[in-house]
Structures are given as C-alpha cells and as structure tokens.
Amino acid sequence: MGVTTKRPSARERLLDAADRLFYAEGVHTVGIDRLIEEAGVAKGSLFYNFSGKDDLVAAYLAGRDERRRARIARHTEGLTDPVEKLLAIFDALHEAVTSPGWNGCAFANASAEAAPDSVEAVAQRTYRVWFSDLLLELATEAGYADPAGVAGRLRLIYDGAVASSRIDAHPAAALVAKDLARLVLEAAPRT
Amino acid sequence: MGVTTKRPSARERLLDAADRLFYAEGVHTVGIDRLIEEAGVAKGSLFYNFSGKDDLVAAYLAGRDERRRARIARHTEGLTDPVEKLLAIFDALHEAVTSPGWNGCAFANASAEAAPDSVEAVAQRTYRVWFSDLLLELATEAGYADPAGVAGRLRLIYDGAVASSRIDAHPAAALVAKDLARLVLEAAPRT
DNA sequence: GCTCCTTTAGACAGGTCTGTCTATCGATGC
DNA sequence: GCATCGATAGACAGACCTGTCTAAAGGAGC
C-alpha cells in the first residue's frame, strides 16, 4: 500500500480553514457555518476544540504572528551586520507581499473595525510591541545616534509598504520600501 | 426672540450620526438601530432618505472623501512651488491625525474586511485614484526625472503615516512622514 | 473488552441584523 | 382648506449568527 497521509484532526482542519477564510474575507464576514463546512467538520467539534469563535480568531492570529516572526528570522539569520538585518526585514516583507493570496496585514485587517479590547486588537498590539522592539534593538546595535528615530522611520516605511501593496494590489511597494529604508539608514548619523 | 437654530433634517442628523459612529466604531459594528437612536430619527426616515444601509455607508464615505480633499486644498492653496504643495499635503495629514477622534483612514478601515465590489471598496478606489493623480501631477510639475517614482515613494510614506498613527495611537508619525518626504524630494534627481 | 477522547449530524434556542409596512402627524405651499 | 412631503413610532418578517444540546459512532490505548 502507498504512502497514505492520515487525515488531519478536526482542530487542524479548522485552523487551516480559519487561516484561509479569515484572511481572505475577514473575521467578521466569515461565519461559523461557512467555516465548518469548508473545514469538513461538525459544529460540535468547533466548540469542543475552542471555547468559541473569538478563541478561534485568536488562534488564527497567533498562527499568523508565529509565521511572520519565523519568516523574518529566516531572512535575518546568518547575517551579522545589524544594518543588513534591518534591510533583510524588507526582504521578508517582499516575500510576503508577493506570495499568492496576499491581502495585507492580518492584524490590521482584523482590528480595523474591532473594539479596543477585542482579541483582534490585543493580537495586533502583541505583534506590534515585538516588531517595534526588534527594530529598536537592531538600530541600537548598529550604533545610530538616534536609534528610536531610525526605528520609527523604518517602521513607518514598513507600514506604508503593507498598506500600499494591499490598496493598490501591487507588490512593488515592498521594493520601494527597501530602497527608502536604505536611504534612511545611509542618511542617519552614527556615533 | 433670540437666534434659534432650526433642528436639522432627519437626513442631516443621520449623516452626522453615521459619520461619528461609522468612523469611530466601524461600518459593520454599528447597526441601524444604534444609528437611528443616536440620530434621534425614526427607522422609516432612514429608508425614506436612503435606499438602505449600503447607501448610507456610501454617503458617509463620500462625505469623508470630500472633506479630505478640501483639507488638502486648504493647505496647498496659495502655494506656487509644487514641491511646497507636496510637503503641504503632509501638513494636512498632520492636522488630520492630531484632530480629536482620529482613528485612521475611513476608507481603509471600512474596506479592510469588505468584498472587492462593495461600496466600501469602490469608495476607497475612487479616493485612491484622485490622490495618486494629485501626487503624480505635482511631481511632474516639479520637474522630477522620475515623477511616478517620486509619487509612489511619497504615497507609501503617506500610507505609512496613516497606518502607524492609528496602530500606535500617536500622531508623531505625521511629522516623521514629512521629514521623510523632504528627504525623498531632496534626494530625487530633477531634469 | 473496555474506557476515554474525539468527532459527527443536526435540531434547537436566543439574539441581532436589515428591511417593510401601517397609521399617524406636522409643516409647507398652493 | 387641502394636498403633499417629510417625519414618527413601532410592530413585524426573514435572514443570519453564535452557541447548546442530544444521541451516536469511531479510534487509540490499556
């Protein structure tokens, strides 16, 4: 008998469907019924594995968070120069925006119309703190006179590329962003 | 008898409530009942003046569009140098992000989880085309060797400031954006 | 064999949402 | 005076949405 792959668990199929549907169409647009039908799962399995829709949304965003960090890590590992690492973050972004189905930042989309204390907003803040810290650490390590200022400018450029590429449905913004980042990194004074 | 202001029409009160509630809490979060209660209007008046919620959403976004264009016009009028006009756009942005209740781009928020052919997405595209054309015209007028490139960079910076200021709930991004815009405008070659 | 964990199908409840309809009322204009 | 237009209150329909519950079955490990 050939190599047979065991059917994933209901939990895994749910997370997979959530990742696809929530990202492509929005966490509030996609209802439970759509979700379980796409996942091929009974409704009871959803509430057995998760406490509710919010819990599933949180798990979906946590997965996005983890994979985004992993993507950045993959692009920066092996590099020693912190300036190179900062630029590599934009390579990771370029990979993301050119991947099929790109639809902008999952956190931004989900929390665009969510309450400030919602799971969506909390997930966005969690990611945001990590990302801001990463930029600040690298800018400090690189010896810039104003590391917080450099990090802030790079973050603005990063945000701009994410927004632009989604609005215009065109991935070129990531390349523009890397050029701008290089310009900023070269223009900023170092100690 | 003193100066009495006549009570605005149901239509005006609806548009006013829509502008406040839709912008602050989201077009899909706020339902009709919330809206008519806040406006002090009967439900019948909503459907008398508008064909439905979508129509009201479209009117809300059209109003935002008009006021944003007016704000930019107010900041650029009187200026002759196209480079100054480009920089003045970021002054208009600064005014917007520092105004009370700032909650990011109304179009971006509304269309973050909306279908591509929804009234939200259409309104966003309409505004986007106008804004892109404006930047391109000014960059061309300024005599840059690559006006489309300059316009694209400025647009990315603008988008970044809008996104950053919302995510971090901090208006400083607009100032950072203007500095970056100046850097771009000074670094770009002119014919 | 037996138990426990997971899954299934589907009915059901309770809430919310958009939109319709009726009946009435005030103001305005002719 | 009368017709028309805008507005009002509220009941109602129909769709959709989250979440619960029941009864049964599959599968893995002991």
Tally of domains of chain A? 2
Report the major sheet of chain A: none
Query: What value does the average pLDDT of chain A take?
Result: 95
- State which percent range the strand residues of chain A make up: under 5%
Helix content of chain A: over 70%
Quaternary: homodimer
Kindly provide the name of the CATH class of the largest domain in chain A: Mainly Alpha
CATH superfamily of the largest domain in chain A: Tetracycline Repressor, domain 2
Poorly predicted runs of chain A are none
What structural class do the secondary elements of chain A suggest? mainly alpha
**What is the approximate shape of chain A?**
elongated
What fold name stands as the CATH topology of the largest domain in chain A? Tetracycline Repressor, domain 2
Biggest interchain interface, per-side counts? A-B, 39 and 39 residues
Query: Can you tell me the CATH architecture of the largest domain in chain A?
Result: Orthogonal Bundle
First-residue to last-residue Cα separation of chain A: 66 Å
Radius of gyration of chain A: 19 Å
Total number of helical segments of chain A? Answer: 9
- How many E-type strands of chain A? 0
**Helix-strand sequence of chain A:** HHHHHHHHH
Pfam families (chains A, B): TetR_N
Protein name (chains A, B): TetR/AcrR family transcriptional regulator
InterPro entries (chains A, B): Homeodomain-like_sf (IPR009057), HTH_TetR (IPR001647), Tet_transcr_reg_TetR-rel_C_sf (IPR036271)
Keywords (chains A, B): DNA-binding, Transcription, Transcription regulation
